[in-house]
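Quick start: read one record
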Amino acid sequence: MKGTLLLLALLVIGELGFQTTEACLSFVRSYGALLTSRRTFLHADVSQFHATVAERVAFEKLQDCLSEEGLKTKILNPQILLSLYLSPECKKYYGDDIIKKVQDFLNQSNIH
């Protein structure tokens, strides 16, 4: 299920005309908001994309789905984010400095 959500999100990003590399940070930030199980964080994140009510409801359903998976999912899923950031495309687009900052943040937060 989790892999399907990631693939779906990446496909949607591609269909919206974004380069995947340009969407790396936005995707990971939104994915993190989904993992928090806090509606406040989720709404703050999706509001920057001017989400419609239907889109907010869809994101809430995704958040509920991820919350039902439990702690193991919340611990393992950030590894997907790290692999996304460490992809050659993201490194090339954002540079090694931002990648290092993200890795440091994840290490500090004990996320990965």
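DSSP finds eight helices and no strands in the chain.
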